[in-house]
Amino acid sequence: MFAPHLATALLLIASSAFGSRAGVQHLLRQQADTNSTNSFDVASCPGYSLDSLTSTKNGLTAKLNLAGAACNAFGTDVANLTIQVTYESQSRLHVNIFDTANSQFTIPESIVARPTASGSSNAHNSDLVFNYDATPFAFWITRRSAPNATPLFDTRVSSLPPTPIAPVIVGDNSTALDGFPLVFENQYLQLASSLPLGANVYGLGEVVASSGIRRDVGTDGGVGTIQNDWARDIADPIDQNIYGVHPIYMEHRFNSTTNTSQSHGVFLFNAAGADILLLTPPSSNVSLIEYRLLGGTLDFYFISGPTPQTVMEQYAEIVGTPTWQPYWGFGFHLCRWGYPNITAVKEVVAKMRAANIPLETMWNDIDLYHAVRDFTSDPVSFPPAEMKAFIAELHQNNQHYIPIVDAAIAKQVNSTDIYDPYSKGTDLDVFIKNPDGTEYIGQVWPGYTVFPDWFAPNALAWWTEGLKNWTAAGINFSGIWLDMNEASSFCDGSCGTGIDISNTSTPFLLPGVPGNLLTNYPEGYNLTISGPSGNITVNGTLTFDAPAPATLSARGIGAGNQTDVELNAPPYTIHNANGRLSIHALATNATHTGGYAELDTHNLWGLMEAEATHKALKTLLPGQRPFIISRSAFASAGKWAGHWLGDNFSQWKYMYLSIQGILQHQMFQIPFVGADTCGFNDNSDEELCNRWMQLAAFTPFYRNHNIKGAISQEPFVWDSVANASRTAIAVRYALLPYWYSLFANASLSGTPPVRALFWEFPNEPELFAVDRQFMVGSDILVTPVLTPNVSSVDGIFPGRGKTVWRDWYTHDVLDAVVGANTTLAAPLGHINVHVRDGAALLLHETPAYTVEETRQGAFALLVTQSADGHAFGKTYLDDGISDPPGPSTTVTVQASKSSVKISGVGKFHVAQKLTQVTILGVTKKPATVTVGGKTVKSTYASAQQQLVLTGLSVDLNANAGTTIAWK
């Protein structure tokens, strides 16, 4: 949750659209150090020459020597480099270019473990081939199966003309760095590769991209994308750096002659602040990707695919597969910043129950805290004893509780101020320091703060103790929510020494207080239609038209131990939208244990906190899967936590943009992800919240959350939203076995649970940019309404007429336009969901109020046969909580023209029976239907070619196979 920098506080207060602790965008970029400039002509840099090549069992190693006079563009040229090329597996090629002296920062194995090479791959059997020119050194990667085709990655681009780029900061008049040679300096690295003109590039994040899921590569002489890699606490700006850093991209190439496609991936294993540019030079027949890095090494992993799904699975082999999620985590979660006390929270829980809107997990934001300090609860508003009793009641009702944990730890104000997390952390030496060894002080919600140093040997034990003491004090949580962990600080770098630490106020006004009231109407609210209703409740009336006056009253409450480097103002200025790297962050010369500098480790902070929290929960909740949602992330963070898409806005475009964020993070191997449903910042309204609650029911992490001072947006606030929510949650809970199986596959193999349409249909170019629809697994297609004042929606249905799509609710076959949009009815409260032919989905027959109660009910089966009678599905079942996962049973369903075979394999005992089976695609009414050889009654609907069997009692355990047959 974001708060403005002090220098812009007055400007922010003046506009009611800004001023949230999580939702304030900087209106102006901060002026960078005037000594920083990006105008150096790097075309004069000499590049490198290769010699001393030695072949190895699995690749080669060689020296790269500076090929001329040093240019020292943004630092000091490194004269001697080493290149190591390793064929690590048949599908993965590792190319690492590093300084021979090993003085540059590299990510320690303790943070992100390197993948293990197979040992059997080499230059003769790999899918990928490394090629090179010795002088000037350049390399390119080709497919073994197509050695003469356009290379997948090709650095032979140094002579291409420069392309102007956007200014780094306001007032910076620099243009492009001329040319694209290999540059390797102690504070600046540069490498570029050609791409096919207008390439289909996906990934590179985290970002809210105006171009959609497919990244813009620019047109003649233009820069399409500047992806900045510097983790930043900011409210979801478009086309700027935000919370996470993921330097992985996938490129998808389509051959129109053969009507076939192939995908591959490129991952740069480097945590440095960086610009990654996608551009097209003037009058060029290629596009480019260019890396500009503040340090580290050029450590690339190339993965061969060749399908979108296999690219992601191969990336998981590098960074690790996602953590196992507990079954209950797929339920509906509810939170807001601004619940004033435990009574208000209890009332919300009671109102959800009274409205019969399933609530799985109740969350608390920083309102919970005493003096806004981690690991506390306010003794007046959230008394520990009352909190303990409240959470116990939730648990008794099969519900859960999650509190927030902020990144910063309050510094004790005086000698009488006893705050154990600080005093114990000081004793154990677990906080980040200034370069002179003194305590580094920042400023966050509790006032002046310190920050955990995850490199410190005692940090994990201290963190675990803090969480343990919190549970002992009554906050018996089921999981943890990690926020502000970029890490964020309100000072511009260090707050300094000798400051008045007794001042615990924030340097700006919080939302909802006098001077910063959230008085704006919801987006597009038309005052002439509904009047100045204090509740902004329109009872189903569409109100998106012209903006109303803002008159609403307030509603309630080391660079690797290097020397001779500039840590505070690196010579190359990356496109950090805040300006200086220390603004709203820690100072880049802050020092970690081992001598690591914040400049090098900044992008790793959120990842390391997530890992520490995961390990702490393993200790505190033994045998249970840690449930963690984190805002900041780096490559491999999915091993430890899920993610939410940060501080979005209650606007229609942000509902749409949430889809690309969810798809991005499938690629990043953080599949358990979702947006703040109905929007976080500003006031939501009935229609937007109605549509969003339904959309989010088909995303992995499903939570409604909004800002302090805004109107309430819990789903019971509006009757139409309550009805829409009940409908959507019922579908979600029926599909829980399917969701759970998709995430089991993700944890086992890295297979993405939520998918862009072209990931399933890679040879249909009309799908390559589609991000207003998405698929859940391979079988469910979701077409949400993303605009106001409409009762229909357009969607494209893949398969070009060869795939049959059926309506989820009616089972009617969709008469879809081939290769173009089909218009679907979409009245308010209805979200279009379609099932693909060939699917076999095991479902919960009767969704209940909680996930656990739903799980205790019987199963149903939905089979959608293709034209030849085929359908197939697998469902993974276990106890839903054990970590590591315990015994499991996989239920396989295989259909042919006139039968469905059901079998289970595994040691987990499935107590619930299969009691209902629906088979679609049965072309005529059967004369007889048998289950396990015994004749049963059935019903048949010819319009849907639907055969329904009820009253069954089919055992799904191993050695209990059952065949359903008809004739």
UniProtKB/TrEMBL annotation:
Gene3D superfamilies: Glycosidases (3.20.20.80), glycosyl hydrolase (family 31) (2.60.40.1760), Golgi alpha-mannosidase II (2.60.40.1180). The keyword Hydrolase applies. Residues 1-19 form the signal peptide. InterPro entries: Gal_mutarotase_sf_dom (IPR011013), GH (IPR017853), Glyco_hydro_31_AS (IPR030458), Glyco_hydro_31_C (IPR048395), Glyco_hydro_31_CS (IPR030459), Glyco_hydro_31_TIM (IPR000322), Glyco_hydro_b (IPR013780). Residues 322-742 form the Glycoside hydrolase family 31 TIM barrel domain. SUPFAM superfamilies: (Trans)glycosidases, Galactose mutarotase-like, Glycosyl hydrolase domain. Residues 750-840 form the Glycosyl hydrolase family 31 C-terminal domain. Keywords: Glycoprotein, Glycosidase, Hydrolase, Signal. GO terms for biological process: carbohydrate metabolic process. It holds the Pfam family Glyco_hydro_31_2nd. This is Glycosyl hydrolases family 31-domain-containing protein. It comes from Mycena alexandri.
